[in-house]
Amino acid sequence: MSATEQTTGSLVVPLPSGKSKEVPYIVELPATSSSEHAAVLLLHGAGGDASSGHLPQLAAACVASGWPCLRITCRGGNLDHRIAVTKALLARAAGLPGMSTVRAFVLAGHSMGARVACAVATEDNAQQQQRKQQQQQAGDDALPSVCALMLFSFPLHPPGKPQQLRDGVLAALPTALPVLVARGSGDAFSQQAAWDATLESLPAREGWRMVAVEGGDHGLCVSGKDGAQRSAAALEEVAAAVRQFLQAAGQRQASGAAQQQPPGRAGSETGEAAAAGQGAHTTEAADAGKAGEDDEEDERRTTRGRRKRRATQQACGEGRRKGR
């Protein structure tokens, strides 16, 4: 028996607009699962797909930790569209291979995918309950809960514009939600000073872990001499952090010590903190569609520039060309 079982296919999901979308997926199952009731959903960035950049390696790290990993491809549309598709897929994930008993997900994503993961995790509880009732009336499965987040190259601000923070969605996250953040120190979407200010402004986050790839760009790749080798080492460092993070999450799931509330709800204290955070930070919810379009164009423009600068770095460069 192989250590990993992989299945590919596509699932048609209905959207709030009344239309439907075919979503290609890749499911990878470990030989031995850490928790039969939890899995990882890994989301790509703008313009990418389920196999872009370092996503296969991150998926392998998840499976090595005993976690089933689901990757999807969602091309086209802005941030709002990506969020709607992700929610619709989660509501029907139980019908996918190996997912019938999954009731909770670790949401993970690269760049725009990380923004989508955060948005789903911070969904208003009233809307969540209303949709559950609608799904039950229609005979659909209820949306699984979110038990943790893994954010890779979260685009905290547009390139070169650290004053335009996209931190509102981070401030709205439940304070008890475990979060892993991996970023490159040279990421144009993620300046260190901007992160320092953001983390300082957030409520206490005991379950957060930050991993910085020294010299890493938005694709977590390192340029310069021996860039390919250094990039591979950096990616292994991130993969090790993923394995450690999921091991702890698996222990919480197995023991039942941490019962994650539905996305968007972490008690009245969290609601007050989220409201205060959104008042003090960017009004991301109001501008999500436009910001998503700008984010996608920024990512594509950054990718084009990176291709020109690093055409000689094939090993890492190929991942960057696909990984956006």
Q: Keyphrases for this structure?
A:
single chain, 324 residues, alpha/beta, Rossmann fold, eight-stranded mixed beta sheet, 10 helices, 41% helix, disordered C terminus, Testis-expressed sequence 30, NSL3/Tex30
Briefly summarize what is shown:
This protein is an alpha/beta fold. The protein contains 10 helices and 8 strands.
What does it look like?
The protein is an alpha/beta fold. The protein has a single domain (4-322), classed as Alpha/Beta hydrolase fold, catalytic domain (Rossmann fold, 3-Layer(aba) Sandwich), CATH 3.40.50.1820. It contains ten helices and eight strands. It has helices at residues 55-64, 79-91, 112-121, 125-137, 168-171, 192-201, 227-255, 267-280, 288-309, 314-322, and strands spanning 4-14, 20-30, 38-43, 69-72, 104-110, 145-152, 179-184, 208-213. An eight-stranded mixed β-sheet has the order 1-2-4-3-5-6-7-8. Helix 6 links the parallel strand 7 and strand 8. Residues 253-324 are annotated as: Disordered. InterPro entries: AB_hydrolase_fold (IPR029058), KANL3/Tex30_Abhydrolase (IPR046879), NSL3/Tex30 (IPR026555). Residues 102-246 form the KANL3/Tex30 alpha/beta hydrolase-like domain.
Distance from first to last alpha carbon: 34 Å
User: What is the helix content?
Assistant: 40-55%
- Outline: globular
Going across the major beta sheet, what is the strand order?
Answer: 1-2-4-3-5-6-7-8
CATH arch. level architecture: 3-Layer(aba) Sandwich
Number of helices: 10
CATH topology grouping: Rossmann fold
Please report the total strand number as a whole number. 8
Query: Would you identify the regions where 5 or more consecutive residues have pLDDT less than 50?
Result: 257-292, 305-324
Question: What fraction of the residues are assigned to beta strands by DSSP?
Answer: 15-25%
Oligomer kind:
single chain
Mean pLDDT: 80
Order of secondary-structure elements: EEEHEHEHHEHEHEHHHH
User: In CATH, what is the class?
Assistant: Alpha Beta
Region (Disordered): 253-324
Biased composition (Low complexity): 253-289
InterPro entries: AB_hydrolase_fold, KANL3/Tex30_Abhydrolase, NSL3/Tex30
Domain KANL3/Tex30 alpha/beta hydrolase-like: 102-246
